[in-house]
Amino acid sequence: MSVNAIPPAADAAIIRVSFDIEQVSSDLLWQAAEVKTHRDLYSPVGRYAGAVHFREGDTVSVEVTAYGRTGTLLSTNILDAMLYTVPHTSGERFSAPSPFSSVRATTPIEQWQPAQIKHDQEPGVSASVQRSLTPLTVVQDDGRWKLSLILTVVIERQTSAGPQQEIRVFSFDPEAEVGSGTEPPV
Which residues make beta-bridge pairs with 63? Predict the structure, then answer.
């Protein structure tokens, strides 16, 4: 979409994050897109490069996928998920605490569908997928924030000693922008 194009009406968006149960790092891979139109909310080039670009009125869900070897990955369960936002400020202008709230910078994601194990990935790989049940709504019309998602996850895997559970923490932290991202509300 060109910078001068008229944007389509706001719609449901989804932030998809993933990790591998064997990975050493705590980094989540992520992508963000509008569900109906498949509008990519992340761009590697242009004005919003490297940021998640929302529109006022977008509803946002989160989907978490854990990958593991088939026969090893038994299940995952999200214990805690929190979105943290830090507004960008400059001079006399101050952004609201969050694109999702005018009064708080943290937003818990509390309700999740039960994990579904999928075996239709590449051969030998299974995926445990959970999606948030209650979407968040972008309530700001303009602004920029550092956006962090921190997940605490129980991973159940099959080992030679039998089923084993471990608790891991994963995160990602791109910028998020709404509107032009340059005229935060005062």
Answer: 16, 131
pTM, full prediction: 0.86
**Exposed/middle/buried for residue 166 (C-beta within 10 Å: 0-12, 13-18, 19+):** exposed
Cβ neighbours, 10 Å, residue 10: 15
Q: The tokens of 68 are what?
A: 């593991």
Find how far residue 29's CA is from the centre of its chain: 9
User: In whole angstroms, what is the distance from residue 18 CA to residue 34 CA?
Assistant: 18
pLDDT tens digits for range 27-36: 999 998 888 8
pLDDT at 2: 29
Paired strand residues for 48: none
Statement: 12-178 belongs to CATH 2.40.160? no
pLDDT tens column, 74-111: 999 999 999 999 998 776 777 799 999 999 999 999 99
Can you give the three-state secondary structure of 144-170, one letter per residue?
EEEEEEEEEEEEEEEECCEEEEEEEEE
**Cβ–Cβ < 8 Å for 132, 62:** yes
